[in-house]
What does this fold into?
Amino acid sequence: MTEPKPGLYVEEPVSKSTRMATPVKRIIAFVRTKYQEAVVAEFEEFGLSLILDGYTQSTELDEFIYHEALVHPAMITHERPERVLVVGGGEGATLREVLKHNTVREAVMVDIDGEVVELCKRHLAVIHQGSFSDPRARLVIMDGKDYIEKSESGAFDVIVLDLTDPYSSEVARELYTAEFYRSVYRVLSERGVVVTQAGSSFFYGDVYDWVLNNVKLVFPIVREYSIWVPSFGYACNFIVGSKGRDPAALSIEDVEKAIDSRGLRGKLKLYSGRVHAALMLMPVLRKP
Amino acid sequence: MTEPKPGLYVEEPVSKSTRMATPVKRIIAFVRTKYQEAVVAEFEEFGLSLILDGYTQSTELDEFIYHEALVHPAMITHERPERVLVVGGGEGATLREVLKHNTVREAVMVDIDGEVVELCKRHLAVIHQGSFSDPRARLVIMDGKDYIEKSESGAFDVIVLDLTDPYSSEVARELYTAEFYRSVYRVLSERGVVVTQAGSSFFYGDVYDWVLNNVKLVFPIVREYSIWVPSFGYACNFIVGSKGRDPAALSIEDVEKAIDSRGLRGKLKLYSGRVHAALMLMPVLRKP
Amino acid sequence: MTEPKPGLYVEEPVSKSTRMATPVKRIIAFVRTKYQEAVVAEFEEFGLSLILDGYTQSTELDEFIYHEALVHPAMITHERPERVLVVGGGEGATLREVLKHNTVREAVMVDIDGEVVELCKRHLAVIHQGSFSDPRARLVIMDGKDYIEKSESGAFDVIVLDLTDPYSSEVARELYTAEFYRSVYRVLSERGVVVTQAGSSFFYGDVYDWVLNNVKLVFPIVREYSIWVPSFGYACNFIVGSKGRDPAALSIEDVEKAIDSRGLRGKLKLYSGRVHAALMLMPVLRKP
Amino acid sequence: MTEPKPGLYVEEPVSKSTRMATPVKRIIAFVRTKYQEAVVAEFEEFGLSLILDGYTQSTELDEFIYHEALVHPAMITHERPERVLVVGGGEGATLREVLKHNTVREAVMVDIDGEVVELCKRHLAVIHQGSFSDPRARLVIMDGKDYIEKSESGAFDVIVLDLTDPYSSEVARELYTAEFYRSVYRVLSERGVVVTQAGSSFFYGDVYDWVLNNVKLVFPIVREYSIWVPSFGYACNFIVGSKGRDPAALSIEDVEKAIDSRGLRGKLKLYSGRVHAALMLMPVLRKP
It folds into this structure.
C-alpha cells in the first residue's frame, strides 16, 4: 500500500467524464478577480503555472507547445505582420511569441482581467520573459469584443485569440460567435489572419463544430490543427481564418525562410517548417 | 455524467489506504516555514482551515469538537488548574478553550513554529477568537521539549499536548516518547494532569499503542477516549495521564458543577457532563 | 514525487463536498440489479466489501461496528424479543447479530433486491457467517413497505431497518416517512422496538431531522445515537423508537445481565453495557 | 457544491506526478492472471476498455487511433508484407489492423498471457471484431522473446510490438532491449520492418531515449512519431526500425496508392497519406 502524498492538488476535467489531478508544490498567489478565480501555483513536475477557474492555462514546462502552436502558423501565414492584436493571453506568452517576429511594429494585447495580467506580470516572469516591457507592446485592459468593435477597419494584420475554452467558462463565450468573427474580419487588414484556440475537437465536438462553422461563415480560408499539450491532458485545437494566404499552402521551405527573415531562428523550441507542415497535414481528431 | 468541479482540492490520507479530497474555495495563505508547509484555506463546506504538511488541522466548522474534547476532560479532572501549558496548538483554539476556565491564572503556549502561529493570528481570528490577547496568555516560540526540560518541577497544573500526529510527520515524534512524558511528569504539579491527542487507534494501532504505553510507563492513572472529527474523516483519540484524580471517576454531576463554577456555562458547544461520561465509558475502536 | 498506485478505486461522498477514495484490490462481482448497482470488492485495507450505487455498505474489517451498534441497543431494549423483522440488510450481518440473541424464535429478513442478497450469500460468507441458514431465519424478497403493510398487527417484537441512506439513493426514501413508521408501529407488539440507521446528522442535518421527527411523530420513546464507522468516513446515526422500555434507562448492569442471559457473552466485538451507556449519553453531532 | 458521482473509477498516472481518473460504468470482468491484473470495464465516455495493472490499454472509443498509428506506417513501409508477427496486443486490435492488408498471408500473434487473450476474445468483440477467427491468423501463447529466439531467420516481413509501457510494468521490460531488437532483426526478412509502441517521450524521456537508442543500435533506418491517445491523456510514441524502405521517404501519394492496392480503402478511421506524412514530419515532444 502506498500512502498517497497529502496536500494540494488541482483537479480539472479533461473530458466530460475524465479528470486529471496535478499535485501543487506551492501556491504563489490566489485571487478572486472580478471575472474569475486566478491561481499562480508551482506544480511538482510542470513548474510555475496559471490556473483560471480551476483550469490550467499555462505551465512553465510546456507552455511553449501551446503558445508556439497558437501564434506562429498565423503569423507566418501573413506576409508581413506589422500590427498584431492579442486578445486574452494574460500570462504574456502569446505576446512574447508575437514579438519574436521582427516585422512587428506594434503588438496590442487586450485582456479583460487586469488583475490576472498584474498577477502574471509579477509572478510569471519565467513565462512572459519581459514581453510586457517591449517598446512595441501595448497593454489595454478592456473587453476584447468592445476593443475590436471600436477599432478602425483594417487596423491589424494578425489577430490572436488566446481565450479560455468556449465550454469551460462563461467569460469568453461571446468571443467565439460568428458575430464576433465578423468584427474581427473588419478590423483585419486586407490580407489579415486570425487564429483562435478552440479547445478539444475530440471531447467537445459539438462546441468545436459551432466555433469552426462560425469562422467559416466569415473567412474565405479556414484551416484547423491541433497539438497535444501535456499539462492539459489533451490535444488542443486551433482554427486559422485568413483573408489572404492559405497556411496549408506554405511549404516547409517557405516557413524556414520566414523563420530566418523574421529573426526567429534560435528563438523557437518547437515551431519549424516541418512542424507547420505536419500541423496542416494532420486531420484533427474526432469521436468516430 | 457529472463534470467534476475543477479547481483546488486538499487530498489527505484517512488511513494507510484511503484518502479524502476536500474542495478549496479560497487559499488565504501558503507558507513554507522552517518546519512545515502551512496553508490557510477556505473549504467549501468546512470554512476557514489550517492545513499543515497536507493534513487538515482545524476547520472553522468542526474545530470545536476536537478542541473541546482535547482540553476540557483534562482541565476538569484537575481540581483547580491555575497554571496551564499548551504545547503546539498554533491556531490558538486550544489556548482559547483553556482560558475559558476561570481558575486559570496563566496559560503558556509553546509552539516551535512562530510562522504558523503568526499565520493563524492574522488569518484565523474566527478560530482563536482573540485568545492570544488574553492577559493570562503567554506565547513562547520554541521547541516544546526544550521548554519543558527547562521548566521548574511542578510548574504546571495541566499540560495539553496539541501536536501533529505521531505518524504523519517528523516534527512531533519526540513529543510522544516515554522520555518526554517523564519530563512532563516532573513539570506537572502534585495532582497535575496531561492530555495528548493521539491520532487514530483504529488505523494506526501500532503507533497508538506505543504512545499509550509510553504514557502508562509514567503516569499512575491513564485514560483514553476518542471522538469523530468530521473534517479528519476519522475518530481522533486522546490520552489523559493524571497524578491525581481519575477522569473516569467524575460523575456527570461533578462535571456539570465544575462547568458552573469554572464559568464555562454557555461557552461550550459540545462538552458537558454527559459527554464527559460518554467519552470515558466508550472503548476506543481497534482493528479486530 | 510518488507515482500514484494505478488501478480501481471506489470514490464516494462523505459529505456534500468531501469524498473518500478507497483502492480496490479485487472485484469479486459486479451486478446491475433491477434496483441498483451492486459491487462485491476486496479493498486493500478493509477486506471484502459490498458497495451499492457507489456507496460502501459493509466491509469485512469494520462491519461489526455498524451492525452491533444497529442491532443490539434495540434488541436489548426489548425485554424478550422472539419475533424479529429485518428490513434491508442484504449482506446478512444484521440478521447474524439478531440471531445471536437466544430469545429469538423467528427472524424474518425482507429485502427488495434478491440479486443483492444472492450476491452476498455467495461471496460474503465472511460477513453473513451462515446466518441465512439458521433454522430460525426466513428470507423474503419483497418491498419492505409492502411486507409490513401486509403483516398482522403486533407480529414483531423488534424491527431493524437496515436501509441505504435517505439522501444517497431513491431506493429507500419511502422507508423513512412518518407514514411508514405508522405501519411499523402497528406491526410491532405491545412493547415493540424499532431501530433505523439514519445516515449522518452532522453532514445531512436536514434529512436527519426529517427522519428523527417522523419517528417522534409515531413513537412515544425515541432515542438517537451514533458511532464512527471507519469505512464510511463519518459517524453513522441510529434512531430507536420504543413502545415499551426506554433504551436510555438501561443501566450498564442491565445490559451486562442481558448479554449473559441472551447468550451473547463472547460473541460480541464491540457492544457491552459500557458501550450502550456511552451511546445513550453522547449527544449526536450537529453542525453548529 | 457538486456532489461527486459515487462509484468505481480507474486512476492511472499520466506522468510521474499527474494522474487521470475515469469513471467506470460497469465491470465486465476482473482477473488476476499469472502475469497481471486484467480488467474489462465499460467506461462512461470511452465504452468497453481493457485495463492491465491499472493502466488503460484500449477503449472502444479511441483504440482506432492507437492501433492504426501503431500498425499502418510500418506495414505500408514494407513493400509487400506477407508474414507478420504481432507480439502482445491481447485485445486483438493490432491483429485486426494487420489483417486489413490483403498482402498478408499469415499473421502470428504471440502473447504471453493466455488469460488476457481469452478475456478479450470473449468480452471485447467490439474491439477485435473477429480478427482471431481470420483464417490467416494464428495465436500462440508464449513469451514473445522466446518465440522470436526460436523463430527462423527472415521468418517475418513486419513485426509489431504492442507491449505494455517499458516504465509502467515489469512484464515487458526485456522486450525493449538492444539484445531483443537484435533477435527481431534476425527474424525479419531482408527488407523487414519492426515497430514498437514506446510510451511517452515527453514524460519519460530517459526510458524513451534508452528504447530509441536500442533500436538505433540495431536498425539502419529508425523513425519516431507520436499521436495523442485521448484515453491515455498523453501522446503515445512509436518507433519504427527498417531494414529496407524509409517510412519518412514515402510520399502522400505512395501511401494513398498502397491504401488502394492493399484493400484498405474504406476500412480506416484515421490513417491516410496525409496522416502518414504528418506523423513523419512532426518531431516527437520532449521536455526542454
Q: What stands out?
A: The longest helix of chain A spans residues 63-77. Residues 91 and 199 of chain A are 18 Å apart (CA to CA).
